[in-house]
């Protein structure tokens, strides 16, 4: 199990009804900047709103370097009908030996309320359970992020508790609600 899983070097493209989850490309910079520059979108993220497309290109460069270093499992969320990158979804941490991972996601506010993040998360979590041998997927969510908590609940996730001062967001330690779903729970909803 010391081998680096092939998923890192060959991040698979995954499709759902309306979305394509794929590797992030430098060509996505304009689409990403469109939402990553919005304080409304970055509010619950550890990163600051992007000020220029150079910020976005640097951000994408970090993710692409992470692919090369076998450290990033970040998918671009592309809307099929528009061929537009509208967000990202990640397995932020993958504890392979413990068969669990943490999911994180960001979506352009222009696409909120359409069930797209739910669709992306269902697709990725299903992939994790079927192809990555996961038994549990977690989602730590800021207490004020009610939208993200609703997505987690629709995924069959249960709020397991609150992790106090668990992460630094915008320079401050914040509490996170820990949501999680087990493989059998995900498929029995």
Notes on the protein architecture:
Helix content is 33%, strand content 33%. With 189 residues, the chain is an alpha+beta fold. It has one domain: Gcn5-related N-acetyltransferase (GNAT) (Aminopeptidase), CATH 3.40.630. Helix 2 (29-36) packs across helix 4. The longest helix is centred in the N-terminal third of the chain and has 16 residues, at 53-68. It is globular and about 40 Å long.
Question: Could you list some keywords that capture this structure?
Answer:
alpha+beta, eight-stranded mixed β-sheet, 7 helices
Low-confidence stretches: none
Helical stretch count?
7
User: What is the CATH-assigned architecture?
Assistant: 3-Layer(aba) Sandwich
| Helix/strand order, N-terminal first | HEEHHHEEEHEHEEH
**pLDDT averaged residue by residue:** 94
What topology, given as strand order, has the largest sheet? 1-2-3-4-5-6-8-7
Tell me the strand percentage band: 25-35%
Rg computed from alpha carbons, rounded to a whole number of angstroms: 16 Å
Output the structural class. Answer: alpha+beta
CATH-derived topology = Aminopeptidase
Tally the structural domains: 1
State the name of the first-level CATH class.
Alpha Beta
């Amino acid at each position: 199990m010391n081998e680096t899983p092939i998923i890192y070097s060959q991040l698979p493209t995954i499709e759902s009804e309306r979305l394509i989850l794929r590797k992030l490309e430098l060509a996505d910079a304009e689409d990403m900047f469109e939402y990553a520059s919005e304080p409304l979108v970055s509010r619950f993220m550890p990163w600051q709103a992007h000020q220029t497309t150079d910020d976005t290109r640097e951000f994408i460069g970090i993710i692409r370097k992470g692919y090369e270093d076998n450290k990033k499992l970040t998918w671009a969320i592309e809307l099929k009908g528009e061929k537009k990158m509208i967000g990202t979804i990640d397995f932020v941490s993958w504890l392979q030996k413990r068969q669990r991972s943490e999911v994180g996601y960001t979506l352009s506010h222009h696409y909120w309320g359409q069930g797209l993040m739910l669709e992306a998360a269902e697709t990725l979590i299903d992939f994790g359970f079927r192809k990555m041998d996961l038994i549990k997927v977690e989602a730590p969510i800021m207490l004020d992020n009610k939208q993200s908590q609703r997505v987690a609940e629709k995924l069959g996730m249960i709020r397991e508790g609150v992790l106090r001062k668990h992460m630094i967001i915008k320079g401050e330690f914040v509490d996170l609600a820990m949501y999680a779903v087990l493989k059998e729970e995900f498929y029995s909803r």
